[in-house]
Amino acid sequence: MNFVAVSAYLNYIDAHIAQAQLEDAHIRCWLKDEHTVTTNPMFTNAVGGIKLMVAEPQLGRAQELLQAIEAERRRHARCPLCAGGNIEWVHTPRKTANNVVSAALSYLFGNMALAPDKVQHCFDCGHEWDEI
Ligand SMILES: [Zn+2]
Fold this sequence. Notes:
InterPro entries: DUF2007, N-reg_PII-like_a/b
Number of domains: 2
Low-confidence stretches: none
Strand content: 15-25%
Pfam families: DUF2007 (PF09413)
Strand order of the largest sheet: 1-3-2
Domain DUF2007: 12-70
Number of strands: 6
Protein name: DUF2007 domain-containing protein
Structural class: alpha+beta
Helix content: 25-40%
Largest sheet: 3 strands, antiparallel
Order of helices and strands: EHEHHEHEHEE
Distance between the termini: 37 Å
Bound molecules: zinc ion
Radius of gyration: 17 Å
């Protein structure tokens, strides 16, 4: 059976959550390059992240399911300041005081050290926060 990539992830936690959601819907899938990214995060961008591979005949259903899950997540997410629903995860510039530490952690751990730089941004009021 031929498998094709339906999505890619920067860390194994998000990849495993998506894989479990597809498996619950009886979609045959597996994670490509999971061990490469997990054991050496510096290769994450080089290999294109952890790819969620699905059986080609089930690709359309997998895409619909992942889009529905994302739509549901967006429907429930709210800004803690203005309660607006127009929010998204964005990358934010690093704080100056953390540049040396961030550079060292990025060298040692690759993208795993970059995770704190991704915050939720409200496009209604401009508020940013990093709580999940
Ligand atoms: Zn807001």
